[in-house]
Amino acid sequence: MSISIYHILGLILAVALIETVGILSVRKVKNANDFNTGGGRAGTWVVAGAIIGTLVGGQSTVGTAQLAFSFGISAWWFTLGMALGCVALAIGYVVPLRHSGSTTLLEIVRKEYGRKAEMTGSVLCSLGMFISIIAQVLSAAALLMTLFNIPFWVSAVISAIIMTLYVVFGGLWSAGIGGVVKIILLCLSALAAGVIVLVLSKGYTGLIDSIKGILLHTDIQLVDGLNTVGDVNAKYQNIFARGISKDAGSCLSVILGVLSTQTYAQAIWSGRSDSVARRGAMISALISIPIGFACVMVGMYMRAHYITIEELNALNIIGKDIPEDIGIMTSSAQAFPMFVTNHMPKFIGGLVLGTLLITIIIGGSGLTLGASTILVKDVFKPKNNLAVSRLTIVGIQILAFVVASSFSGRYINDLGFLSMGLRTTATFVPLTLALFFPGRFKPKWVFFSIIFGTACLIFGEFVSLPVDSIYVGLLGSILCCLLGLKNDKIRN
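and the corresponding structure tokens:
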């Protein structure tokens, strides 16, 4: 891997651009309402920017490429789920959210089901978002480690500081306006990466043939356990490579997680009209699909030409060497950044590296803003919301850096799916019932559903079940609510 002055220059310029946007956005922030929802004055592209700015982050780029390295096209489920979630948000939730008279999702829950439901949901939803923030820190750390060959803890510290500086000044305006810049840069970067993969591989068929070559016709076959063409196809060309329950459940987690996340609701509330908010959500859906596909292609290309240190060590143990033309990565999380540095033109690669870091920064920043809004509005309830919001953002990022160290061996997207699942069990069912079926369910049972559904999800994560844990958590939440369904006699 060779880092040139062009790579560094592109990275610095891109980060400087986005940090400048964040700092200049402070001029639009006069009060806490401006900070959290943009004062309800945003246009279509700012709404889309706020959604994409957070939604398409490290999990959608670095994480998707990492998962594609190991499981092929099934890694596309995260961004497909994002797109479907945005469509559901636009069609079903924009109008009721905007007409709810609330500024947080859990405030809507409180109005219908009481303070206990709000507090419990706030804490659990914030925990889910915090896990996703950790994934963003891991993604940024993988990028910085690849570029500068620095220890993980140093790259994680730098990542957390940049995210904090970005959002702590401008809040929603930073996420929205910066997201517009990000949309432009990210689309160009993803398009360039996808095209280069297909050119280098001589098309999709050539890409698959290259994967078969490295996995079936080298000694890597001895440690990867893939023995036939059918084995490779089942793992890399199967949209359900990790099992229908696992992959479909992961997609469902993301769809419902989008509907249950404060950050995306804040973007909807920031729009100056219902139609503006709806268009912003639909644009976000359309943009996320090709970006995800390009990242999948990058991950598969890296599988065809690289192995990890772990695979190399396994080969050394059995006395086998690797061909000279096969590269080595410290971790599969480095798939995307190493593709950029090693296989793209240097100047374009520099711009892409900067865009990739921006993507992760805005994603982590937007989630941090959403988590801090929930904690400040629904839990802390201070007199000086703006000051406490900024202090909470700093505290979240410090904690994210500390916790991220223990997750460095996990798939980044697995953390993303878990995060979305927690947001779903804590928020989705109570929120949906409050918006569409007010007065139909007893508050105490809805409160129990938040706890029981989350407990079922966590149980499913630690026990080998035949179905994805999101189904267990969602079923537990729904069953609790049904036990509290009021009959006509009670309502009258």
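(Above: one complete record from the training split.) The first helix runs from residue 5 to 24.
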